[in-house]
Design brief:
globular, about 260 residues
């Protein structure tokens, strides 16, 4: 069932999103060569506790961690690990969901550890732009397919990357995963029509190689690129409003100015 949120509920989700965005901004100073991915988990747990929020992922279908920390060819749902030491040039994705007094927000951000490369920079730039191209389509009266078609055309047709099919965005609030599904591929003009008050995530996962994924058998959670290529992801939680899409997890008021939710 799709739940439509009131202005008050969206405002509470934006407060949750501001906490989540603040955690991601803080990670910019934490992530560096030589730390373990577990340090990211520790930082997130501490940050959420200090801001009166709950790490909603802990306990979700048996998941044990506040964050997913996916490294290089890991597409999503990577475990934070004490024995995984980050190295110069690693591409990592940090995904987490925050519950603030019952209001949910969900965001993933990509970071390069230490010194980057032109190839990694381009993958990150294309993936982030794909996110915003999807957000542009999240207008009242448009359809879910308009979001996916914009992302798929830009990432695959224009840039030759692989647009992951197996993992998609979703509705959010008051629970973590709700209808509608929000694929990052598809056909314009198809799918559920977007209505005022819907809150969804848009979270393209883009591979440097092919789009295919495979599961990491030992833990049953982590997905990797089937061809071993690097994968990148950016995700925002947004609200569908009469004034256009509004980002509830913004980290950059200048970049997000056309879509900024103010409260």
């Amino acid at each position: 069932m799709i739940t439509l949120k009131s202005p008050r509920e969206i405002e509470e989700m934006a407060k949750s999103g501001a906490i989540l965005a603040g955690m991601h901004i803080g990670l910019r100073e934490i992530i560096k060569p030589g730390i373990s991915s577990w340090e990211i988990e520790k930082f997130a747990r501490k940050y959420f506790k200090e801001h009166g929020a709950i790490a909603e992922q802990i306990g979700f279908e048996g998941y044990k961690y506040a964050t997913c920390v996916s490294v290089n060819d890991e597409i999503c749902h990577g475990f934070p690990r004490k024995n995984l030491i980050l190295r110069d040039g690693d591409l990592i994705k940090v995904d987490t969901v925050v519950n603030y007094h019952g209001a949910m927000s969900d965001s993933c951000w990509s970071y390069v550890v230490g010194k980057s490369t032109p190839e990694i920079d381009r993958l990150m730039e294309v993936t982030k732009k794909a996110l915003y191209l999807g957000i542009e389509q999240a207008q009242v009266g448009n359809r879910i397919g308009d979001i996916g078609a914009a992302i798929q055309h830009y990432t695959e047709d224009v840039n030759g990357y692989g647009d992951v099919r197996e993992f998609i965005g979703h509705g959010i609030g008051p629970t973590m995963h709700e209808s509608p599904n929000v694929p990052h591929y598809g056909e314009a003009g198809k799918g559920v029509r977007l209505r005022e008050g819907m809150t969804i995530t848009i979270e393209p996962m883009i591979n440097m190689g092919g789009w295919e994924a495979e599961m990491d058998d030992p833990n049953g959670w982590t997905a990797r690129t089937a061809d071993g290529s690097l994968s990148c992801q950016y995700e925002h939680t947004i609200a569908i409003t009469k004034q256009g899409p509004k980002i509830l997890t913004s980290q950059d008021p200048i970049l997000d100015a056309p879509y900024l939710y103010e409260f």
